[in-house]
## 1
Amino acid sequence: MIRRAGRLIDAFRTAGGPPPRTLGAFMAWGLSGTFPALAAAAAVSAVAGTLEVLTALLLGHVIDTALASAPDRFFAANWALVAGVAAFFLVARPVVFGLSSIANAVVILPNVNPLVLTRLHRWTLGQSVTFFDNDFAGRIAQKQMQTARALTDVASEVINVLFFALASLIASALLLTAINGWMALVLFVWLCGYLYMVRWFMPRIRMRSRSRAGARAMVTGQVVDTITNIKTVKLFAHANHEERAAIDAVTEFRERALDYGSLAAAFRICLITVAGMVPVLLIGGTLWFWSRGVASPGDVVAAGAISIRIAQMTGWVSHVLMAIYGNVGEVEDGMNTLTSPHGLTDRPLAEALEFRTPTVEFRNVSFAYGRATGGVDRINLDIAPGEKLGIVGASGAGKSTSYAPRIRKEPGGGCG
C-alpha cells in the first residue's frame, strides 16, 4: 500500500521543450510534472511542524491543570484531557509524521532523481559529437549525476525542512502571543537577526559550492577519461604527465573544498551562538512575566519547550539551508554545462530518410570544423552501391575530415 504512493509522480515523463539557461526556469523545467505531489507533501510537512508547537501547548496546559487539581482527583476530573493528549501523541502525531515520511521517502526521492536525470541525459544525447569532443566524458556524466541529485535534494529539503520550520515558527509566534505579546516581539527580533546572518552567508556558500562542484567534476572527468583510454595512454602518453594532470585536478578540488569548508565552519560557529540566545530570551522573559504574576507555570514550561525546540531546529534548519544553497550551486554549475543548445539540428519540416538506392554523393562539400580555413574545400564525389572507397594521405591531410560530413558529426561549413 505504501509502495503505491510512488506512482504519484511519473518518473520518466518527458520535459516540454529544451532546458532553460536561467536557474529558476531550469529548476522548474527539471521538476515540471511533480508540482501537485510536491504541494501535497509540503502541506503535510507544514501540518507536522504545527503539531510540534501543539506539543508544547498541551504540555503547558497539562502542567497548569495538574497544579490546579488535587492529586487524588486529577484523573477523575480530567479524564477527557488525558485521553485527548494520549490520542494526540499515539494517533494524530504518528499519522501526520508517517504521511510526511512517505511523501519524502516514497513519493519524492525515488521519482524526482530519475525524472531529472533522464531529462538531462535525453537532452545530452541530442548534442553533436563536437560537444563530447570538447569535454571529458566523465565530466559530462558527473555533471548529469550531481545535477539530478542536487535538484532532488533541494526539492526534498525545502519541503521536508523549510515548510516544517516555517509552520513551526508561525505557530510558535501565535503561542507566545497568547502568553504575552512582548515574547512574540522578542522572537520576531531574534528571527530578523537570524535571517540577516543567513542572508550574508548563503550566497557565499552557494558560490563556493558551485566552484567545488566544478572542481569535483573535473577530477572525475580526468580520472575516468584516462582509464577509459588506458590503451592509448599506455602506448603514447607519459605516466608522469597523466599523474601530474590528475594531481593538479585533485589539488584544485582540495583548494575549493577548503574554501567551502572554512566558510561552513564559520557559519556553524555563528549559528551556535545565535541559537543559544533563544532559550535565554524566551525562558528568561517568561520567568520575568511569571514573577510579575502575568504568566503561569504552564506558560513557562511551554515557552521553555518552544525555545529549546527552536534552538535545536535553528541548527538543523541552518545546516539544511547550507546544504540547499550548496546544492543550488551544483545545479547552477551543471546547468551551465548541460543546457547548451543543440549544435546540429534538422531543418524545419525535415522528412525521414528513405533508402531507395544506397548511393553516396558529395556535391561541392566544404568543411572546416567551424573555422574559416582548413579542412576540405568543394569536394565532389560519387560512391555507387557496393563500391568501397579508401582515402590515402599524409597525417593531417584531411582524411577524417572528409568523412566527418558524411556521418553528420559536425555542421562545419555545410554544403555549397
Note: Strands lie at 360-367, 376-383.
## 2
Amino acid sequence: MNSCTVTRSEISSAMRGEFIPPKLHYSRVKACMVNGLRHHEAFAESEPVKELCSTSTEKVFTRARNARLIMSNKIPPMTDDEEKPYCIWYPDVATVDTYRELAQRHPDMRYHVGRACAVGGYFDLYRELDLLPDISIAEEALHNTDVTGAKEIYNHIVCQPMRYSVLDDYTRSANLESPRIATGLNGDTAVLSSLRSKLDYWRNWYKAPHYFNITEDNSVGEDDYGTYDSEEYLDIEHVPLLYNPLPVDLPTTKKDVLIIHAAYEGNIDRYARLRRPTTILKEEYALIRGIHHSTAFARWCLDQPKDRFGYDYGDIRCAINARFIMVNDLSRITPPYEYIPFMIWWPLLPQENTLRELVRRVPRTRRQVAMTCIAADYKRLWDELTPEPDPLLWKQATQCANPNYYVEDLERRAATLGIDLRASPKERDWVDHECARRDKEPTTTLLAPAIRTGWEGEVADFHDDDGSIYPGRYQANAAEWEVYIAVTDEVRESLWNTGYARSYDNHVAYQQDCKE
C-alpha cells in the first residue's frame, strides 16, 4: 500500500471509531475499518457509517456494523444473508435476552447464538435452542470454562453419542442442511482467547493472512498484543501430544506445531486428521521432508488435489518423484518429463540400473545421476556417463566413501578442460549447492524454552546462505524440536522458566541423570 495515499493517522482514526478513512478498497484499510465498527457502537450508529453501509457493495462493513449492534443489544434489520455477521460474541457479549430474540427472528443464526452462549455461559438458552452437538461450540466452551455455564455446555455436548460440525470457522459458514459428522474435537475453532491477540496493522501487516478471520478484521490492532495465532507456543502440558497417540478430543486449538511435525515425519494418519483446509506457514517444507522419508506418505500426497498445495505443487511433486526414484520406481517419469528432482540419493540410494534407465529417459538428469554415482560408489555407471567436471561434483566426491577414484577422475579431466573445481558451487547452483553437504540434516545441542511455529518458528531454515537439499528454497529441520522432545519433563519445565540452554550443560545433564 502506498503510504502517501492514506496515512497511518487516518487508519488509526478508523480503528478508534473517529471517521471513515479513504481507500477502503485497500485490504489493510478495510480490516481496520471493520475493527473500528466492531469496537465502537457510536461509530457504527453514525450517519456516515449508515450511508456507507447502504451504498457500498462491500457487505463486510454492514456485517461489522450489525455485529456491533447485536453485541450492544440492538438487533438490526437483516434481510440479506450477506448482511448477517458470523461472530457475534467478540469483542463483547450481548445479554441472554438479545440472543434469544435474535435466534427467534433469524433461525438460521441459532448456531451462532449457541456459540455466543458458550462464551457468555448461557446454559439455559443453549438448551432452549435444541441444537445438534456442534464441536465448535464444544471447543469454545472447553476453553472458556472459567465462565459459569460454559462447562455445563461442554459436558452437555461431549456426552452425546454423535457430534457434528455445523459452524465452520475457516469459511465463516454454517452447514445447516447436511452437517458433517465429527468424531471429536480437532482444534478447528477460533476460540475467544485467540481473538484477543492483536497484530500491528502498520508494521506487521505481512503476517495478516491467516486461516481464521471470523471477525473479518484480521485481528488488527494499533500495536501487537499477545501472540498471533500462527506463532503460538505449544503449551508445555501439550508437548506429549507430539509423541503419544492423539486423543479423540484434542485438548488444544494450538495445533500448528502438531501439523508441521506430522508432515515432517510423514505420518499419514496424524497429518490427515490435523491439517487445516489450507497449508499453514512452513508446512510445505515439512511436507517435502516427510515425502522424502516415507514412500507411503509420498504416495498419499500424490493423490491429494493439486490446489491443496497451491504454488508449492511443483516442489511437492518433485519430492514425490524423488522418493519414487529412490525406491526404484520410474513409472511416473514419462513425457513431458516435468517435476524432475535433483536430490535423488538421500535418504535412500537407488539401484544402478534405475539410474541408468533414468538418464536414458531424461538425458538432462545426467548430473544428478552422477552425484548419485559418487554417493553410492557406482564406478561403472560413472565411467559410462563421463560427466563434465564441475565444483558441485568435486565437492560431492571429496566427501564420499571412496574419494580417490572420483576426485582423481574429475581433477584430471578438469585440468584438460581448464575448469576450476574449487570455485564456489553456489555461484552455479544457487538452489542445489547444498545437496553435496555431508551432514544432510544437522542435529543441535540447543534447547529452546518451548516449541513454536509461525514466522519465528524453528522448523524451517530461513537463512538464504544455507539453502536446501530438497526441492524449494528452504529446508525443514526440526532438530530443536527433536532434542526438546527427547529431554525429561524436568528439563522442559526448567527451560520454560529459565530460557535457552545446551543439552550438554551440567544442570541439564544432572536433571536427566536424576530422572534416570
Note: The chain has a mean pLDDT of 91.
